[in-house]
Specification:
Elements (H helix, E strand, L loop, with lengths): L2 H5 L15 H14 L3 E10 L4 E9 L5 E10 L7 E8 L3
């Protein structure tokens, strides 16, 4: 799934017991925070399910100073099947 496809999935309306978080807000917030720390995304992947109502995203973050990078991942859904969640870890770049 491309980022532009992710952005066009309609966000459901909030209710008294449910406040959806848009896929766009998650991605743009991640990029904003990475930019503040001079980190750049080298690759990004998005896997959507149920017509984009469920998404898992991965971002590979490479630093210029070494061969060790990071991967940041998140999940989100508009159908209440998954809560918003994030995970991060290190990656070794092999050339």
């Amino acid at each position: 799934m491309e980022r532009k496809e992710l952005y066009i999935v309609p966000v459901p309306k909030a209710t008294d017991s449910y406040a959806p978080v848009s896929h766009r807000d998650i991605v743009e917030s991640i990029y904003e925070q990475l930019d503040k720390h001079n980190l750049k995304v080298s690759n990004e992947y998005y896997k959507g399910g149920k017509e984009g109502n469920q998404v898992i995203g991965y971002m590979d973050i490479k630093r210029d100073d070494n061969n060790l990078g990071m991967r940041l991942a998140f999940r989100n859904s508009y159908d209440k099947s998954m809560s918003v969640a994030f995970v991060a870890g290190s990656m070794v770049w092999i050339y």
